[in-house]
């Protein structure tokens, strides 16, 4: 490759990177929340959906890792699930509600950002909550080996002592293996991998050759799909899905667009025992 050709290549490469990287959406200072605290389980798909939204909009947030056994960190709350987001002192519950409220707020409330969302965007956000998310647990806990891998991986991000991690691992993985089977039955899934691949292809088809469903920038449906898939990306399930479907390109575009975490502390604040996602 000549110097000129190499230069042209790196310029076009930089331009192509910029087209996705510059997709990140910043919030006008006027509407930016002052203090945001996320109560979460690190590997929970719903929590990751909220994080994808906050990261994409560069909204700084503190994280409080909730101990799922006692949930003492959210003792003050009547709502007992995570995520809970406290925005300038106001409690918001439920990932989809949280995101809709934030979306409206960062657009200055005057624009009804939620009602201006397209039917397509709303339809796929619902698809994430009613369909995609239910495919995760049956997949990541599919076999004893995968259950161990998932339990190990997901709890590494929790607040475990080495002792808790080692002793809890086999019991936890066994429990999750059976819970995965129960959830599979509850959601009428016959072949969990086939259903996941089908869902990934369904999503790619819905993209209809667009970079994102939102066009040149991700919309709330893109952020929701990306958020719930993020915790499984390094697990066997995530690797299989990337290898067996066409979702990889969109996923890496999303990684680029969402960019680094805007979380204020490097590591989430931890308490004691954690548990993996159970959806
Ligand atoms: N619809 C809720 C679902 C939240 C949810 O089910 N979160 C799980 C964690 S992944 C939870 O808190 N489960 C109750 C528990 O762990 O006791 C949302 O979108 O935020």
Description:
This protein has 279 residues and is of the alpha+beta class. The chain has a domain at 119-258: Glutathione S-transferase Yfyf (Class Pi), Chain A, domain 2, CATH 1.20.1050.10. 52% of the residues lie in helices and 6% in strands. The protein is built from eleven helices and four strands. It has helices at 3-21, 45-56, 95-106, 119-130, 136-140, 144-156, 162-186, 192-207, 220-229, 236-244, 248-258; strands at 36-40, 62-65, 84-87, 90-93. The protein has a four-stranded mixed β-sheet, with helices on one face. Strand 1 (36-40), helix 2 (45-56) and strand 2 (62-65) form a beta-alpha-beta unit. The longest helix has 25 residues, at 162-186. It binds glutathione. Glutathione binds next to helix 3. Glutathione binds at residues 41, 44, 46, 68, 81-83, 94-96, 277, 279.
In short:
It is found in: Endomembrane system. By secondary structure, the protein is of the alpha+beta class. The chain is built from eleven helices and four strands.
Mean pLDDT: 86
What is the name of the CATH class of the domain at 119-258? Answer: Mainly Alpha
CATH 2nd-level architecture of the domain at 119-258? Up-down Bundle
Q: Which regions have little confidence, pLDDT < 50, spanning 5+ residues? A: 1-18, 268-279
Bound small molecules, which ones?
glutathione
Kindly name the structural category: alpha+beta
State the distance separating the first and last CA atoms: 51 Å
CATH fold annotation of the domain at 119-258: Glutathione S-transferase Yfyf (Class Pi), Chain A, domain 2
Percent in strands? 5-15%
- The best one-word shape is globular
Please tell me how large the radius of gyration is: 19 Å
Number of strands: 4
* Biggest sheet record: 4 strands, mixed
Q: SSE order, as H and E?
A: HEHEEEHHHHHHHHH
The largest beta-sheet arranges its strands as 2-1-3-4
